[in-house]
Amino acid sequence: MTSTVPALGTRTAEGSALQAVLLDMDGTLVDTEGFWWDVEVDVFASLGHTLDATWRHVVVGGPMTRSAGFLIEATGADISLAELTVLLNEGFEDRIGRTLPLMPGAARLLAELHEYEIPTALVSASHRRIIDRVLAVLGPHHFALSIAGDEVSRTKPFPDPYLLAAAGLGADPARCAVVEDTVTGVAAAEAAGCRVIAVPSVAPIGPAEGRTVVSSLEEVDLAFLRGLMTEMR
């Protein structure tokens, strides 16, 4: 699955109101936000440090460099960012190799988007090595392209990943529906000008203009997404 996309240039909003669907991965499609925290706890325990549970809200949904960097600074652990990144990715790969539960409603939504040929992209702050492992379970045929956190110069909360995904699908960001589970991801999608559906996982997300908050993906289907876009017209 390639993340190669053309230069930023989008189709106009003429025609179908919903032009593409852009989906986050961890905590949105797969129930793995807890996996990341468990791995972080285990890795730092091996280094002789105990993580404060309140830090979980700080590191959730962010790029590896931000999350790992914060934990190094907070604990004072004697490890480099590069070394920690390797350990975290290896630990996470081990976890998803044993089990990879999907979020409720994820399989149905992906199948529906594929059936109706809705251009769909996977947009994650996780590294390519992790995304490819998860794609093998989700089904790469469900996605026209994927964007990994280590393949963009600025990942979430910056808008770059979502702008790249929209451009890669030839869609106007304003006609893209984004589904996210974290404040960081929501900020990135909204900065890109997309319509956001927030499905909070670890931390709460409040409603806002242009944002719809639901409790589960089971509330989200194609009719729901098209309805949100129709409201904008």
TrEMBL record:
Signal peptide: none annotated. It comes from the Bacteria. InterPro entries: HAD-like_sf, HAD-SF_hydro_IA, HAD_sf, PGP-like_dom2. It holds the Pfam family Hydrolase. Gene3D superfamilies: HAD superfamily/HAD-like, Putative phosphatase, domain 2. NCBIfam families: HAD-SF-IA-v3 (TIGR01509). This is HAD family phosphatase. The lineage of its organism: Bacteria, Bacillati, Actinomycetota, Actinomycetes, Kitasatosporales.
